[in-house]
Amino acid sequence: MISLISKNRLIITLSVFLLIFLSCQTPNKNTEVRNKEVIVKILGTIQDGGMPHLGCSKKCCKNYYNQGFSNKRVVSLGISNIKYKKHYLIEASPDINHQLKALLQDKNPSKSLNGIFITHAHMGHYSGLLNLGRESLSSSLVPLFVMPKMQGFISSNGPWDQLVKLKNVDLKSITNNKPKVLEDNLSIVPFLVPHRDEYSETVGYKIIGPSKTALFIPDIDKWEKWETSIVELIKEVDYAFLDGTFYDAKEINNRDISEIPHPFIIESIALFKDLSIFDKNKVYFIHLNHTNPVINKSSGPFKNVISKGFNVADINMEFSL
After folding, report:
1. What is the DSSP code string of 179-248?
2. 173 HSE (CA, 13 A, CB side)
3. Which of 264, 261, 299 is nearest to 285 (CA)?
4. What is the model's pTM?
5. How many of the other CB atoms lie within 10 Å of CB of 205?
6. How far is CA 101 from CA 42, 44, 88, 175, in A?
7. Tens-place pLDDT, residues 249-307
8. Residue ranges of the domains in the chain?
9. Is residue 50 very low, low, confident or very high in pLDDT (cuts 50, 70, 90)?
10. At the topology level of CATH, where does 36-320 sit?
11. Angstrom distance (rounded) from CA 264 to CA 46
């Protein structure tokens, strides 16, 4: 017969065990809230020339011309800091009007856009800045975060310098590998990558949220030209939005591919082959040329990318940091 004391001990032990069990099963609400504080949204996935592409008579573009409408936008990311009601744009693409609508809804960018980060001075990444000027929005002091060479280019060359003179933008300096703290739960780190730097340096960005980190490298010549190991970097982050401009060399038959170097997706897949499936799943190929077959989700190349454990970025995808 179990004594009264033994019964009480048993009840207490079971109660403690039950509390521990329930605490393990119940999600940590503080963690859940922090995970939703910062959201990265894909606002565009296409290479600078857009889709449909000027002068393209291939099937990939004909379908979009025939539709008379395309939701394929040039590469851009939106960042929303829900906690502080702040919004940032990475890349000012030619599709900036549509992209700011998707990011801000009906809010005035002059009041609700808290900053734009630019990777480099190629048309798809900064030409949208013109929409902030006198002929269009005529914005007021939108913070524009740029590297030193890019800042000098914008300040000294028209029509960009007019944006500065009319105070449509407010130039903010950023430095290689130095975190730019935007709020206490959000920082962005620029880092130099090798690319065709005719007018400015080229950077990628590491976006650091309260719980997770995302990598954004839309343009790079080749991974092996970079002194940093992209393989090791993928292991360190939670999401990696990487240059997937061309699937392979076959898709460009009217251009000298050496003039527009990028890592082919098939090269990246080979380079990343020894990553764990967990790390492979972090990778989202972005900045897709209009000829890239992975744009078509029913294509063999798209299915190949997915079967290998990787992803292809798509417009309106959202990621919590």
Report:
1. -EEEETTEEEEEEE--S--SSS--EEEEEE-SS-EEEEE---S-GGGSSS-HHHHHHHSSEEEEE-S-S-
2. 5
3. 264
4. 0.87
5. 25
6. 13, 13, 13, 29
7. 887 766 666 667 889 999 999 999 999 999 999 999 999 998 999 999 999 999 999 99
8. 36-320
9. confident
10. Metallo-beta-lactamase; Chain A (3.60.15)
11. 15
Q: At which residue do the structure tokens 């082919």 appear?
A: 264
Tokens (6 digits) for 65:
């011309």
Residues 6+ apart with CB under 8 A from 5: none
Q: What is the pLDDT of residues 56-100, one digit of tens each?
A: 777 777 777 666 556 789 999 999 999 999 999 999 999 999 999
Report pLDDT for 1. Answer: 46
Report residue 190 as tokens: 């620029």
Strand partners, 242: 217, 285
Angstrom distances, CA of residue 124 to CA of 43, 128, 280, 318: 13, 8, 27, 21
Q: What is the pLDDT of residues 167-224, one digit of tens each?
A: 999 999 999 999 999 999 999 999 999 998 899 999 999 999 999 999 999 999 999 9
Q: Which helix (H) or strand (E) holds 320?
A: strand 318-320
At 123, the amino acid letter reads M
In 3D space, the residue among 126, 121, 146 whose CA is nearest the CA of residue 199 turns out to be: 121
Q: Is the peptide bond before 261 cis (omega within 30 degrees of 0)?
A: no
85: Cα within 13 Å, side-chain hemisphere: 3
User: If you average pLDDT over residues 116-144, what whole number do you get?
Assistant: 96
β-bridge mates for residue 283, sequence order: 240
